[in-house]
Design goal:
The chain is of the alpha/beta class. It contains five helices and eight strands; from the N terminus they run βαββββαβαβαβα.
Length: 202
């Protein structure tokens, strides 16, 4: 408003588009680290110390130094552009907390399935979960310092992923690396949605 008159040249700024993404994978694969490294707000974490009582059900092979585990979810937020905000929900990795996944998956555009080449089979359950529910996902290999290196195609073949599923290498500790993973998820999810809505031509 200029001198009591509305300025017709100024338009109210549109609210940004907000999208929900899940971050899933096996126990100790780096989900909490990924959400924390990229979140622009203080991430919400629901971690508890590992105890002797959980030793029979929490397989720490390959991640022996791990001392805590997520028991509900991680939550973070990142603004990719002025008009695009992502809300990240990290899922718990252990089987006994999978009942939470259905609640967390409601309204999700897509997901990151984080994998560790030392324990690649641990991400099968997450891959199967999103495939069965038709939720687009990117398979992100978290390149731990002491983990064996494999090509994206070798990982794809080992997990028997569909050709259109993106497979990317990342470092869950590095913000820019994680941002590339999130962009991949959004692009793949949007492309998958467009394909699903487009009638096939004969």
């Amino acid at each position: 408003m200029v001198f009591g008159r509305p300025d017709r040249g100024i338009r109210p700024q549109a609210a940004p588009l907000t999208l929900k993404l899940l971050v899933a994978g096996g126990f100790g694969v780096g989900k909490t680290t990924l959400v924390g490294s990229v979140s622009e707000i203080m991430p919400l974490r629901t971690e508890e110390l590992l105890t002797e009582a959980g030793r029979p059900v929490d397989d720490t092979s390959g991640v022996e130094a791990k001392r805590t585990t997520t028991v509900a979810m991680d939550f973070g937020r990142i603004t990719l552009r002025e008009d695009l905000v992502l809300y990240l929900f990290g899922t718990p990795g252990q089987d006994r907390f999978w009942f939470l996944w259905d609640e967390l998956a409601q309204g999700a555009l897509g997901a990151v399935v984080l994998a560790d080449t030392r324990r690649l089979a641990d991400c099968f359950a997450a891959v199967d979960y999103f495939e069965r529910r038709g939720i687009a996902f990117t398979l992100a290999v978290n390149c731990f310092d002491d983990a064996p290196r494999h090509s994206a195609e070798a990982v794809r073949d080992a997990l028997d992923l569909d050709p259109e599923v993106p497979v990317v290498m990342c470092d869950a500790r590095e913000r820019e690396s994680v941002k590339r993973v999130l962009v991949s998820v959004v692009e793949h999810a949007l492309a998958t949605g467009i394909t699903a809505r487009t009638p096939a031509t004969v």
